[in-house]
UniProtKB/TrEMBL annotation:
<keyword id="KW-0378">Hydrolase</keyword>
<dbReference type="InterPro" id="IPR003607">
    <property type="entry name" value="HD/PDEase_dom"/>
</dbReference>
<dbReference type="GO" id="GO:0006808">
    <property type="term" value="P:regulation of nitrogen utilization"/>
</dbReference>
<keyword id="KW-0677">Repeat</keyword>
<dbReference type="InterPro" id="IPR002912">
    <property type="entry name" value="ACT_dom"/>
</dbReference>
<dbReference type="InterPro" id="IPR013546">
    <property type="entry name" value="PII_UdlTrfase/GS_AdlTrfase"/>
</dbReference>
<comment type="similarity">
    <text>Belongs to the GlnD family.</text>
</comment>
<protein>
    <recommendedName>
        <fullName>Bifunctional uridylyltransferase/uridylyl-removing enzyme</fullName>
        <ecNumber>2.7.7.59</ecNumber>
        <ecNumber>3.1.4.-</ecNumber>
    </recommendedName>
</protein>
<feature type="domain" description="HD">
    <location>
        <begin position="502"/>
        <end position="619"/>
    </location>
</feature>
<dbReference type="InterPro" id="IPR043519">
    <property type="entry name" value="NT_sf"/>
</dbReference>
<keyword id="KW-0460">Magnesium</keyword>
<dbReference type="GO" id="GO:0008773">
    <property type="term" value="F:[protein-PII] uridylyltransferase activity"/>
</dbReference>
<comment type="function">
    <text>Modifies, by uridylylation and deuridylylation, the PII regulatory proteins (GlnB and homologs), in response to the nitrogen status of the cell that GlnD senses through the glutamine level. Under low glutamine levels, catalyzes the conversion of the PII proteins and UTP to PII-UMP and PPi, while under higher glutamine levels, GlnD hydrolyzes PII-UMP to PII and UMP (deuridylylation). Thus, controls uridylylation state and activity of the PII proteins, and plays an important role in the regulation of nitrogen metabolism.</text>
</comment>
<dbReference type="InterPro" id="IPR006674">
    <property type="entry name" value="HD_domain"/>
</dbReference>
<keyword id="KW-0548">Nucleotidyltransferase</keyword>
<feature type="domain" description="ACT">
    <location>
        <begin position="854"/>
        <end position="934"/>
    </location>
</feature>
<dbReference type="Pfam" id="PF01966">
    <property type="entry name" value="HD"/>
</dbReference>
Length: 934
């Protein structure tokens, strides 16, 4: 049963008996006698008593929440407790502190809950918003009573928002300020003069609300859009804001504000009687509200503060509290978050329903002449969709021509989306609501229907596919029509690498594939060029591969292999030939290969290229894989795709192409090196030709292929400035805003322990290395670029931090500083570990190089890990020839090309086993830092 939002809340039946108002009032009566004449001491004692009672009552509410998992009831309990405290304080203030036997007409006050508190629901650490309503002006008595209540609440440690206004002031300010108007919309009488409150409500309805519904709705929807923009437009961000994020509680609040303002509904249940929601949609409203309140209350209880973000470290704790368990392929926290995102999705659907109802009402209420003129406007004219009798254009949006459109022909559930896409029409909310209510019609016959599958493939491969597919996903059609897709809807991956849920990632990848195909974006230059060169009949293959590449996430089997099996079942249904079906399956099975090789292998090693060529088999397959890889990385989240990764992908493609063509290449390696150097000469015209030629000769060929142009120019300026200043060691600091990292470019005399020293200096400064690019010049200088996580918001502060790291590197190189000591000191003060677990893995093989043994290390990232790894490898009497450092969220994946001290590969199984044991132990337990050899 709903609690009226404008009346006193009845005590929830499960409220713990420890908060007994009568008992507490009796205790306060005794305090009043004990401290008679000593008002300050009485107030202090009363605040201490209430603080203890509130703490006990909150603990009881938390215990009850853990037992019944009913979030709304918990919020009601907490609100009831807060109501009782304020009533007790008002009673004490008016009886013992400022008791007046004869009240004037001005000595009246209504204490009113406003804003979120006025809704009758509170999270444990929510603010208490109070309005002290006076008849017409402030009096000494009113000021004293309000202050007594507020000071006691503050002494209890509560956060209180408050205002003292007359009824006239309330009305005047509500007219002028939409925030105040919204707060007054949710007022709830607590104590004091009830007639005064009734006057406020009546005048607010008549003088503020009446006739201003359109203005209020427009303001609230604009406010909602701005809030979503600030918090991230997608409701599927993996660390959502439960209160203000898209699909969160504030969206439900906005929905109810609008309904209350427009329909004058005092309870959510009234929206059914008003025809806004049907009974099923209302139950969905209450279910979403209850789950969101449950999550929010748990977050506040765990954090002990008003934390609203469902962060990674909070997610696991809340999942356990809510009773989620792990299933094969999905952790408990991933199951919990999938449920959360499905709720956020439903909140979006409810909002769309309300907006459709409001729009329909606004149209009906328009003057007759305006409606007639609207019908005469070509853009607003209701007409048939070309070539489709079952659909009409309604104000430039597609709608249904009749109520039985889907029942009569279920293919229309797919056709409606294709027609909207083809005719560039928006979707009418009524049509989307009808689609949602017709999902049961999507059955096996419809899934096997050739026309339905043809229409779906057209949607996927036509303009604006991402937008249309997202509508299909929001309504539930996509997950019903492609059942494997339905399993990954709202599924999150509990890691720091992926920014979005799996379904959102796949839809974004389709969008980026279309951007690649359109061209014009320099960051996708290679993929765009290859897109124009693939076989025309492989275009659809590519789009389906992008949509399905992560379709099997959350299964016990490797998602690439399981995804290939899904493709083999689905593609024939979509009309693909056996050969193209196998090609889609191959692309899905190998979709991580190119990214892994590019970022973790030595691309200048011939064996690397030969092994990759053996995997991709043909230039056409490599083209398709390159495009898929580009879209996949870009779709992970902001800042994940960058110029460095683009250059590595480019290099791998063009290094492999001649191997696949038997020595013939469209652009062979020598020509590409010359082209890269010519590009550099053309772009960098600051130096004389002779100096430029000399500088170019200082870099090995691999440098010109692996480094993007902008970075090459920065390197040139940096090297010249450093050498002109006579610096043996120099550091250049840059800031990559897209990735949120600080880049340190270090120029130093090459040294076997240089990487370890750099890593140790970063660790001792608390800087976590997320990736590294390591180059050596032909004259024995090391040019290393290290990307570290930021510690400060301001670039100036980050710059000073980078300078300290540089000074530390120099001090270690000249023997002034012992790295093991400073690293150990820093590690001893580090905080709790991240809420992630990564199974440590160490792989050692000689298949990726003829000269070196490749050690691939993967484990949970932590400050100082790279320093510990490089130190341990050196102590194992191994020389590091090159290192490829990368971080994928919380997972560190570092690859080292090593030899023994004589320059040979490590071939003995016992030696390999000893190396593996030592590194696994380090990843699992950490290691005391060791001093680098001089």
């Amino acid at each position: 049963m709903d609690t009226p939002l404008d009346t006193t809340i009845a005590p929830p039946s499960e409220t713990d008996a420890r908060f007994d108002s009568a008992r507490i009032m009796a205790a306060i009566d005794r305090l009043a006698v004990q401290f008679s004449g000593r008002d300050d001491q009485f107030r202090t004692a009363m605040a201490q008593l209430l603080k203890a009672e509130l703490s006990a009552a909150r603990q009881a509410a938390q215990e009850q929440l853990l037992k019944d998992r009913h979030g709304r009831r918990c919020a009601e309990r907490l609100c009831f407790i807060q109501d009782e405290i304020i009533r007790i304080l008002y009673d004490a203030a008016t009886r013992y502190l400022y008791n007046s036997s004869i009240h004037s007409s001005a000595e009246r006050m209504a204490v009113v809950a406003t804003g979120g508190y006025g809704r009758g629901l509170m999270a444990p650490e929510s603010d208490t918003d109070l309005l002290f309503v006076l008849p017409y002006k402030q009096t000494a008595w009113g000021e004293q009573v309000a202050e007594a209540i507020l000071y006691c609440l503050w002494d209890m440690g509560l956060k209180v928002g408050h205002a003292t206004r007359s009824v006239d002031e309330c009305i005047r300010q509500a007219r002028a300020d939409m925030t105040i108007r919204t707060a007054l919309l949710e007022t709830r009488f607590l104590t004091g003069d009830a007639e005064l409150y009734s006057e406020l409500v009546e005048r607010f309805d008549k003088e503020v609300v009446e006739g201003t519904a359109a203005e209020f709705v427009q303001a609230k929807l604009a406010e909602r859009e701005e809030r979503h923009r600030r918090s991230g437009q997608s409701r599927y961000l993996v660390e959502p804001n439960v209160k203000d994020g898209k699909g969160g509680l504030r969206d439900l609040h906005t929905l109810f504000w609008i309904a209350k303002y427009v329909y004058r509904a005092r309870q959510a249940a009234e929206l059914v009687n008003k025809g806004v929601f049907d009974a099923q949609e209302y139950r969905s409203f209450r279910r979403c509200e209850d789950i969101l309140w449950s999550v929010r209350c748990h977050i506040h209880f765990v954090a002990g503060r008003a934390e609203e973000r469902l962060s990674f470290d909070m997610q696991r704790e809340i999942a356990v509290r809510l009773g989620y368990t792990s299933h094969p392929g999905l952790q408990d926290v991933e199951r919990f978050m999938k449920h959360y995102f499905l709720v956020a999705k439903q909140v979006g659907a409810l909002t769309a329903i309300l907006c459709a109802k409001l729009e329909d009402q606004e149209t009906k209420q328009a003057p007759a002449l305006s409606r007639m003129m609207a019908r005469l406007r070509p853009g607003n004219k209701r007409r048939r969709v070309p070539g489709a009798e079952d659909f009409v254009v309604d104000n430039n949006r597609i709608n249904l021509a009749g109520p039985d459109v889907f029942r009569r022909d279920p293919v229309n559930l797919i056709r409606v989306f294709r027609l909207a896409q083809k005719n560039n029409l928006a979707f009418h909310p009524d049509a989307m609501r009808a689609v949602t209510h017709s999902l049961r019609l999507i059955n096996t016959p419809l899934r096997e229907n050739p026309e339905a599958n043809r229409l779906f493939l057209e949607i996927l491969t036509s303009d604006n596919a991402e937008i249309v597919l997202r509508h299909m996903n929001e309504t539930g059609v996509l997950g019903r029509f492609i059942r494997a897709f339905g399993k990954i809807v709202a599924m999150m991956q509990f890691n720091m690498y992926h920014h979005y849920t799996v379904d959102e990632h796949l839809l974004r990848c389709v969008g980026f594939l279309q951007e690649i195909e359109r061209g014009g974006n320099e960051e996708f230059a290679v993929a765009t060029d290859l897109m124009r060169k693939i076989r025309p009949d492989h275009r659809a293959v590519l789009y389906v591969s992008v949509l399905l590449h992560d379709i099997a996430k959350g299964q016990p089997e490797d998602h690439s292999i399981a995804g290939a099996k899904v493709a083999r079942r689905l593609c024939p249904r979509l009309g693909f030939s056996p050969a193209d079906t196998e090609l889609v399956a191959w692309l899905i099975e190998k979709h991580l290969t190119m990214s892994t090789v590019a970022q973790s292998r030595d691309l200048s090693d011939r064996k690397t290229i030969e092994k990759f060529a053996a995997v991709v088999e043909s230039v056409e397959q490599m083209k398709l894989l390159t495009i898929l890889t580009t879209a996949d990385i870009r779709g992970v989240g902001p800042g994940v795709w960058n110029g460095w990764k683009a250059q590595l992908i480019r290099t791998l493609y063009y290094e492999t192409e001649p191997v696949l063509t038997g020595g013939f290449s469209e652009v062979n390696r020598a020509e590409r090196i010359r082209a890269a150097q010519a590009e550099f000469r053309a772009a960098f015209t600051e130096w004389p030709e002779a100096e430029l030629t000399s500088y170019i000769s200082r870099h090995y060929p691999a440098y010109w292929l692996k480094v993007e142009l902008a970075r090459k120019i920065r390197h040139a300026r940096f090297l010249r400035a450093s050498e002109q200043a006579g610096h043996k060691l120099a550091i250049n600091v840059g800031f990559d805003e897209a990735r949120g990292v600080t880049e340190l470019t270090i120029l130093a005399v090459d040294h076997p322990w240089l990487l370890s020293i750099i890593a140790g200096a970063c660790a001792s400064a608390g800087a976590n290395i997320v990736d590294a690019q390591i180059y050596t010049t032909t004259d024995g200088r090391a040019l290393d670029t290290i990307a570290i996580t930021r510690e400060y918001d301001r670039d100036e502060d980050e710059g000073r931090r980078a300078t300290r790291i540089g000074d530390m590197i120099e001090d270690v190189l000249v023997g002034k500083l012992r790295l093991p000591e400073v690293v150990a000191k820093r590690a001893s003060g580090k905080g709790k570990l991240k809420p992630f677990t990564v199974e440590p893995e160490v792989a050692i093989n000689n298949q990726w190089s003829d000269r070196y043994t490749v050690i691939e290390v993967s484990g949970l990232d932590r400050p100082g890990l790279l320093y510990q790894l490089t130190t341990a490898i050196s102590k194992l009497n191994l020389n590091i020839a090159s290192a490829h450092v990368a971080t994928f969220g919380e997972r560190a994946r570092d690859v080292f090309y090593v030899t023994d001290l004589l320059g040979a590969q490590i071939t003995a199984p016992t030696r390999q086993a000893a190396i593996k044991r030592a590194l696994i132990h380090l990843l699992t337990n950490g290691s005391s830092a060791q001093k680098p050899a001089a």
